[in-house]
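We now fix the convention by which a protein and its fold are recorded. The integers have meaning only within a learned vocabulary of local backbone shapes. A record is reproduced here so that you can trace the correspondence yourselves:
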Amino acid sequence: MNSEQLTNDESEPEDSPAFAHLVERLDSLWFEERREAAAELPNLVGRRCGGYTIRNVIGRGSFGVVYRASDDQLQRYVALKSPRPEVLLDPERFQRFHSEAATAARLDHPAIVPGYEANLSGPTPYIVSALCTGPDLCRWLADREVPATAEDAARLVADLAGAVHYAHGKGILHRDLKPSNILLEPLASYNDGKQLAEFQPKLTDFGLAKIAEAGLQDTRSSLLVGTPLYMAPEQLSSDAKRVSAATDVYALGAVLYELLTLRPPFEGSSYVEVLDKLHSGSPRPLRAERPEVSVDLETICAKCLEKDPANRYATAAELAEDLSRFLAGKPIHAHPVNWRDRFSRWVRQPERIRNAGVTTVWFQALSSVWMWLIAGASIAISSIEIDGVRTAIDSLIATLSFNTPLFVLGWLVMRGNRWAFVPAALLSCAELVVAVHAATDQGLLFAHAYPTLTSKLASYTMLIMGSALQFIMYALAVPAWLRERRAGVVTAISPSIGK
């Protein structure tokens, strides 16, 4: 199974315009990759690039070709990466090549492929790095019939987490961690390559790396940064500020999950299906896929794969520490998710705000209809004309005082206007208080329409229940509103994709 190739099913629903645009971009990228992979490449084998003689091709993709080359001066073999011709004609894609060279020059870690030299001018730009003689992790997984042992998987991801934390310390986010970007360098204990313990992982391909302090423009190449099977949910957002160190932690969790199950957390036959699951689904529990995996390791993996970055490990170093504690048989810092955690995370989801707005819109519309039906019935059957007029006046007062303002505020809240949340919540509380008071006080609104207090209470029951539900929805949405207020999020909240 090659878990990094997806086909697009054009029959999938595309309900959200933003989501449809995202899928369209993915489709164009995928077809572009296939077309470029089949394109004729210049044959550089046997040619010299600077002080290097190119020997043979060891890998190729949609972006460039990697050659095994000999360093004539130091008498060693190296990996030489040269961009495809079409990349040289595309300023944005060539900038990615330049970014990879600049990033490699800043990193020096045992679990990161070291860069030696870069020449970005001339007819054949290239990047020279250490030559890794082993396969990449994607190829290693594809050749496997059984998953890696829990200890080997934990050890490899701990090594990678250390490298990622080192890069983060340099202000660099990788943003495209995946098995094909993890090379396996054979150790001295190498036997047949069937065990991960025989390799030292080496992280490579920082072409999509982002300098943490720098901004990210919404260009063609940065519309979607990452590989869908391993990308974090926040990478679907157009807000680049949501991408953080926790984004790379998510990808490390996805790699750990695949090492232990031979499948990524989310699978699908199309980009639409994968992105829908990424947005609104949850990975199948690790122990449901592989029961013999320990609860501690499942807990570590689940914490990495949390949809909310705030619920993941804050740093890759924390992930590495928990994996090391697991390997040493010590208690880990993470704990399994309980019902209190689930409830706390549920109330902090942005959907709670939208749900409160939807509840208000529907309740105010229905209660307005109910009040005016009472007024109409009172006018029709009243033996004293003045009673019908009083009922109509009471309905008008209630509508102008609560129904209309709350309907407008609820609509704004539903549409994502953050400022409307507080007045809507306060007015919904006031409406509940007034409804309860009016139901128990014979002298308030609609008193003449009910001969007894019991009949009035019976009629007001539905109004009180609706007001209470509306107020509860706003109370539940307060944590989500506070969280968005702290984050400065002012964009509209979209419903779930594909629903």
Notes: The first strand starts at residue 48 and ends at 49. The CA atoms of residues 286 and 298 lie 6 Å apart. The first helix runs from residue 17 to 38.
